[in-house]
């Protein structure tokens, strides 16, 4: 069996404050994790968690990944934007065109996200978090499809997207050009190994698919830290 996506992790200067922001925007329950981190729980068992870890990763340009939030109507889009602004978001310009209907915002820790207009066919039936949109190559899309066992739902012009067989949020990669990486990512994937699967063997499988080892996690052997083919950090949790 493949690794499972346990969480999308944010390194945040004020992790608890950022968790409250995203809890308010998404309407997800917030709780404290085992390691002093803040954790948002998905509304159903098929979704991933969102973890907010303390850290001071400097902002060196746009993040390599951001959330695309969906809308059921123009009014719903306006309501989402208004709620996010009230909770501490702000409008930003990342080069979007005037005719584009999505709204680009930054959360209180300067992480970009988009509120997508209603009627977007690509994100239909994905849920409120329609996509985790990533800057990345076709190769890394293929890697994550094999790593998670999620099928490719888009593979065209070097753009790729995968989605869990159970549906929900898509993970997308926009293809070239990919901005150079300057320092650790603020957002990273955290995987978990299913019960009965050998952890070391699974890490070896990920390496055979193109990942690279970087060392041991901060929790003294709880995680392996690896890099995907585009050099993005990700963690593999040991079974608890």
Automatic annotation (TrEMBL):
What domain of life is recorded for the organism?
Bacteria
Please report the name of this protein according to its UniProt entry.
Bleomycin resistance protein
The record's annotation in InterPro entries points to: Glyas_Bleomycin-R_OHBP_Dase (IPR029068), Glyoxalase_6 (IPR041581), VOC_core (IPR037523)
The residues covered by the VOC domain are 125-239
**Organism name:** Streptomyces mangrovisoli
| PANTHER family per record | CONSERVED PROTEIN (PTHR35908:SF1), HYPOTHETICAL FUSION PROTEIN (PTHR35908)
A Pfam family per the record: Glyoxalase_6
